[in-house]
Amino acid sequence: MPRFPGVDYMQFDSLLSEQExxxxxxxxxxxxxxxxPVVREAFNAGTFPKQLIPQMAELGFFGANLxxxxxxxxNNVEYGLIMQEIERGDSGLRSFxxxxxxxxxxxxxxxxxxxxxxxxxxxxxxxxxxxxxGLTEPGFGSNPSAMGTTAEQRGDSWVLNGEKTWITxxxxxxxxxxxxxASEGIRGFLxxxxxxxxxxxxxxxxLSMRASVTSSLHFAECAIPRENQLPCAKGLxxxxxxxxxxxxxIGWGALGAAMDCYETARAYTLARKxxxxxxLASHQxxxxxxxxxxxxxxxxxxxxxxxxxxxxVGKVEAAHISMLKRNNVAIALECAxxxxxxxxxxGIMDEYPIMRHMCNLETVKTYEGTxxxxxxxxxxxxxxxxxxx
Length: 389
Description:
Butyryl-CoA Dehydrogenase, subunit A, domain 2; 10 helices; globular; 3 domains; Butyryl-CoA Dehydrogenase, subunit A, domain 3; 4-stranded antiparallel β-sheet; Butyryl-Coa Dehydrogenase, subunit A, domain 1; about 50% helix; alpha+beta
């Protein structure tokens, strides 16, 4: 398979350190060598390529921007570049890595007891344990404050009742970070596989994110030890802080999908001959589409880099990450659509990655906050007026 040459119109690489470039190259080579040869079959079969988990763990991809407990301690630019390259391979694979690091390891790292950190973080980093994040419910997606899952303290146990859905890694997970309503408010809990009253069921029939496991989590008088509560995870704000970590990775990841679509279309239109044996790329309407894509990708790269730098110095805000996620996913989806158009009938064939990216990005646009919700977050930031209701 051809090596990905990268996309750099504005000398973006000159803004990266040698270490950041090395991290990106490591992730890029992993995707070219390990992901590209298997992802088409996995997507078509609707299976997750579990054989990649140990390899990703060995490269330090899980919880890469966390400190200690075996984590790589990378900066957020390096972490973002990893997400970019993995999603260039497939959004489903990047979702797995995002959930493992940003939605499971991060809340344990930020809100867990030292005992919880010591028990879970090294295992999650090494891939010996898999995690999932239970927030969304069948009746509540964009409004998690209305969650119906409850947690009641009974003696030395917490008893959970309710259901979570659209949970990436759900049936694979050895531990679930679950948010539930207790008498003192929303709290976070660690629910281990095999806990009495806890079961999972996979969601089938997906036309998107097919190389990813998506599940529902069911809690029926599910009893867990009192010490499985995350002691510092108090209120919905704690859960939303986890989403900010994941949305940051999505903003970078979508760039990878956009780049893959753009480069596929660019190479195809240069090689394909039509009308007196002229390459498609010689036509004005083709160049207009390529020009739009490279312009938007370049702007998205600079946005992602600035948000990462703000995150590294502790100045990033949730509204900054909302702009990153909203913009970069939107331009990635449009790049996929334009690229599909440029490839004509071949654009729908699984020989090329474009239709797979397009289908996946329809999900990426929706999860971790829809485009509309992020629009309102940005609107509140610039006006001071919340307009969610």
